[in-house]
Amino acid sequence: MQKTCLDCGEPLVGRADKKFCSDQCRNNYNNRLNSDITGFMRQINNILRKNRRILAELNPNDKTTVSKEKLSNLGFNFNYHTHLYTTQKGSTYRFVYEYGYLPLDNDFYMLVVRDKK
User: Fold this and answer.
1) Do 48 and 98 meet the contact criterion of CB atoms below 8 Å apart?
2) Cα–Cα distance between 89 and 17 in angstroms, integer?
3) What average pLDDT does the segment 107-115 reach?
4) Is the Cα torsion angle 102, 105, 107, 110 positive or negative in sign?
5) Which candidate, 107, 44, 114, 109, places its Cα nearest to that of 79?
6) DSSP secondary structure code for residue 10 in this structure
7) Which residues contact residue 29 at a Cβ distance below 8 angstroms, ignoring those fewer than 6 apart?
8) Dihedral sign for Cα atoms in the order 17, 21, 22, 27
9) Are 96 and 52 spatial neighbours (Cβ–Cβ below 8 Å)?
10) For position 105, what pLDDT does the model report?
């Protein structure tokens, strides 16, 4: 029984454990297999990248305060962040990679940059 390429169905010639007839077929097969996952991940990564860019633009000096309205007007999505950091005093910062923000009173946020050690 002759094996066929998993992507195009052409007969395989060569090694007994060969699954694809070419690199192109291997790439096509794997791209199709992972397309649903990568599309979802791409959307989330785009949101995180945009949030990071907004925080970086608004915080050039490593620490500043901005209004929630300003962040929202720039398209910041408060539902997406990479991690949380809770201080010893109990304040919880949300971080988008190295850029963090802490909710303050009156709909303001303190923006910080994590030390780059």
Assistant:
1) no
2) 59
3) 93
4) negative
5) 44
6) P
7) 6, 7, 20
8) negative
9) yes
10) 94
Indicate left, alpha or beta for 107 from its phi (over 0: left) and psi (-120 to 50: alpha).
left
Instruction: Strand 63-67: give its sheet, edge to edge.
Output: 63-67, 108-113, 99-103, 92-96, 83-86
| Local structure of 90: helix, strand or coil | coil
Q: Is the pLDDT of residue 62 over 80?
A: yes
Among candidate residues 80, 43, 63, 57, the one with its CA nearest the CA of residue 115 = 63
Which residues are within 8 A (CB) of 70 and not within 5 positions of it... i.e. 6 or more apart? 58
pTM for the predicted model, two decimal places: 0.73
Cβ of 66: how many Cβ atoms within 10 Å?
Answer: 19
